[in-house]
What we know:
Helix content is about 65%, strand content about 0%. By secondary structure, the protein is an all-alpha fold. The chain has one domain. Helix 1 (about 10-25) runs antiparallel to helix 2 (about 30-40) and helix 1 packs across helix 3.
Amino acid sequence: MFPCPLVRISQARTIAFDVLRRVETQSAFADEVLRAELGSNARTEDAGLATELTLGVLRWQRLFGHLPTLVSGARAGSCRSPRIR
């Protein structure tokens, strides 16, 4: 990803992005990666925002994963195609 020279991205958003990328690509656990990324260097405000962004995205991702099942009326887990999941 190429940083935009005109926009400064907050530390919290950068941490959340890195955590989400590791969760997706390495099947890592979000809480463990968050703890490691935040360490003792992050301010309380940044830690709170990074945590909320990360967990919020994962919550919405889970909901959106179930929407096709809810809309179609199919039983949960009946769709085996990974492209649809």
